[in-house]
Amino acid sequence: MIIRQGITGRLSKALVVNGFAFLSGLTARDTTGGVREQTEDILAQIDSHLKAVGTDKSRIAVANIWLRDIRTFDEMNEAWEAWVDKESPPARATVESRLAGEAILVEIQVQAVA
């Protein structure tokens, strides 16, 4: 059985299957801020989506982060390190990538144990 949350015409924002929660790649709702502000916005969305499917950030197993410019890695990490569960940080990858729009500076996708 698959449980889906936030279904749009092209994707589900989150789904749970076989004890794992999979979140779609998320971008900031407000793209007027810098990398830190966009990261904080995305992390708040992650908290909300995880809560909606019955889990939380302490149960994130994997995080993938895409940055428009890898030189903003430290700025993104400031927000990440203030947010991440220090007792159970996930495996993580961060890469530079062309993103879907010029104003999008960060995209984050996570998988968690439900």
Structure description:
- This protein is an alpha+beta fold.
- The protein has one domain (3-113): 60s Ribosomal Protein L30, Chain: A.
- It has two helices and six strands, in the order βββαβαββ.
- It has helices spanning 35-52, 73-83, and strands at residues 3-7, 12-17, 20-23, 60-67, 91-96, 106-113.
- Strands 1-2-3-6-4-5 form a six-stranded mixed beta sheet, with helices on one face.
- Strand 1 (3-7) and strand 2 form a beta hairpin.
- The longest helix is centred in the middle third of the chain and has 18 residues, at 35-52.
- It is globular.
- Keywords: Plasmid.
Main attributes of the structure:
32% strand, 114 residues, alpha+beta
Q: How is the secondary structure organized here?
A:
Layout: E1 3-7, E2 12-17, E3 20-23, H1 35-52, E4 60-67, H2 73-83, E5 91-96, E6 106-113
Parallel strand pairs: 4-5
Antiparallel strand pairs: 1-2, 2-3, 3-6, 4-6
Which consecutive residue ranges, at least 5 long each, have pLDDT under 50?
none
Q: Give the amount of beta strand, in percent.
A: 25-35%
Q: CATH architecture, please?
A: 2-Layer Sandwich
Helix-strand sequence:
EEEHEHEE
Tell me the overall shape. Answer: globular
Report the radius of gyration as a whole number of Å: 14 Å
| Count of discrete structural domains | 1
- CATH fold-level label: 60s Ribosomal Protein L30, Chain: A
Number of strands: 6
Q: What is the top-level CATH class?
A: Alpha Beta
